[in-house]
Amino acid sequence: xxxxxxxxxxxxxxxxxxxxxxxxxxxxxxxxxxxxxxxxxxxxxxxxxxxxxxxxxxxxxxxxxxxxxxxxxxxxxxxxxxxxxxxxxxxxxxxxxxxxxxxxxxx
Length: 107
Ligand code: 2BA
Hints:
alpha+beta; Alpha-Beta Plaits; four-stranded antiparallel sheet
């Protein structure tokens, strides 16, 4: 068994939750905050059997989109103070970590 930690944009999280349920995947959705943009995102904890990992990743890939955001250059690079040009940052679709599970129990 594996656990997938998937960090996705808030805009995609409702749809991802729906698609995971439709695909018969069990998941927990946690509110989270990106360290760089300091904006809200969602982290999904998805426990899956080894042979279903690729299917779950496919659902995530299809549902979560890449978006461009603009932040002030000072925000991205403090040393750029005084320069007000916005900096383009591409966010998502999803950042996924796939971890082995030693043991899984439900009581
Ligand atoms: P944030 O940390 O808010 O990052 C949002 C986007 O800003 C990132 O998109 C990336 O394009 C950019 N970015 C992040 N750190 C940067 C830096 N030091 N310099 C320049 N640009 C930077 P994504 O890579 O798609 O990441 C989306 C969210 O996924 C992140 O939000 C964070 O919450 C999470 N994440 C990404 N990589 C991670 C990692 N290695 N460990 C833990 N969480 C991660």
